[in-house]
């Protein structure tokens, strides 16, 4: 099976897009699936790559340093793409907020901006931001945000243990951390409110849509005339959003390292689509 999988991947041709949007990688966290992202970047090219925040997890690195070689490999891969002509733009989030002190700066060809307006191929405009400024917990109660971050770490550890047990039992992958998070978020209606507020910010900015991250909930949907796009994350769902040459958007889930199937398109050119955690 391993040889067949490698043969399939070796035969793959890289897919080329107009734009790729990636967020919430959390390099520096043990939960980050940096190896999945590196694999993804090998088979996906774009004229422009927008990093929509929380690429580096400064919060966790401050607590304890964790930076394996694969984190360097991801950074080097992005730098190499920039050197070869890909425009790479970095919109910092709350976990990598130290970069917000350097708007307009270029690091190895990677451009840092606080937020940006993306001109779609179909003529529509999209506001791009991480989204943490609309998270009341992060904005108004930093201590609570850190406590929530600790609880999320604990859920991730449980997730790793359960994944190992389910693998031994021949059961499919299921994310406990994603499930637990969604139960809490749904209880307080956080996700829906976040989406509504971010979409309204796009409307106020004169945009036709918004592309963000932050809440690790990948989705493409229309909200009262505003296209709301969340790129998801590379901690649980391993998702990215791609813009095609005609301006349509695709939500991609990458599972090449986990299965014999190199790439799984979760949603292709959707009118309205959502990536939800897998059921047990």
UniProtKB/TrEMBL annotation:
InterPro entries: Calcineurin-like_PHP, LpxH-like, Metallo-depent_PP-like. It comes from Rhizobium esperanzae. The keyword Transcription regulation does not apply. Keywords: Cell inner membrane, Cell membrane, Hydrolase, Manganese, Membrane, Metal-binding. This is UDP-2,3-diacylglucosamine hydrolase. GO terms for molecular function: metal ion binding; UDP-2,3-diacylglucosamine hydrolase activity. GO terms for cellular component: membrane. Residues 17-217 form the Calcineurin-like phosphoesterase domain. One of its GO terms (biological process) is lipid A biosynthetic process.
